[in-house]
Design goal:
The protein is mainly alpha-helical. The protein is built from 14 helices and four strands. Helix 5 links the parallel strand 1 and strand 2. InterPro entries: GLR_AS (IPR011767), Glutathione-S-Trfase_C_sf (IPR036282), Glutathione_S-Trfase (IPR040079), Glutathione_S-Trfase_N (IPR004045), PGES2 (IPR034334), PGES2_C (IPR034335), Thioredoxin-like_sf (IPR036249). One of its GO terms (cellular component) is endomembrane system. Pathway: Lipid metabolism; prostaglandin biosynthesis.
Amino acid sequence: MRKSPTLASAILSRSLTSASGAVHRRFLQAALYGSSSGSGCRHGSRRWFSSLLDSLGGSSSRAASLGLAGAVCAAAAVTSFSQVVYAKEPPPPEVVPKDVVLYQYEACPFCNKVKAFLDYYDIPYKVVEVNPLSKKEIKWSDYKKVPILVVDGEQLVDSSVIIDKMGEKILQGRKANVDTEEDEEKKWRRWVDSHLVHVLSPNIYRNTSEALESFDYITSNGNFSFTQRITVKYAGAAAMYFVSKNLKKKYNITDERQALYDAAETWVDALNGREFLGGSKPNLADLAVFGVLRPIRYLRSGKDMVERTRIGEWYMRMENTVGDSARIKA
């Protein structure tokens, strides 16, 4: 996965020379999954990006039995406790939509935010992976970004709006009992969209090896043909390495890793000793933070974040609470 910069440069040069201008422009735009503003994966920084493209042209059996029995009892006790504190919250069957389809990019933080909501509330959904180059899977929609969620035939767009509308449908009577709790939730959901997402791209594309690692994940999970997968991995990684430098300037980030660590610590401070921002169970802000961090968790940047900040315990609680995906086969 970690190829040499020389190899990446050679493949990039050949790819850009042979491909048409329009095609490699869209290859590289596809790399901007997680660097957009707002709550949808759009292709931001178009003006700067266009200029970049132009310039690129276990004793005895009894003891063992007792030990096993003790372990089983302990495990049962822990499981029982965790179910009480960290259980999912499936809504009443009568309010669960019959048909939910998510049009997404697997690596998009905004799409993962929607999936965290659907998974936690155990709403079955199908996934259509959109090819970011042709976008043929969403030709039918006037909205040309992801995520798009189609709920019983109704199109919902923009991740935060999708979650708000889905909440209205399935979380009747579950709103915060105190106004200040609801205000806190809204405040941190806005923070996710206005700040947290913007420190991700400069981190996952921080250097050539991390950019290649990120694009290996993107192309392995995305909807690409074999040829597109190879071209996008190397050309995209090379381009996004340079794009990440521009994003640092745009969002006034001096040290991208420190900015990520600071964001993680800011979130832990907001918890103020609570298991979740929502108290004994996650609220929409918890789900939003978890969702956008999920794509990077096992990349180098995500591992560094967990190792060097206090966010690891909360993330593990969220991982256990959100649990298995509610995704079903299309």
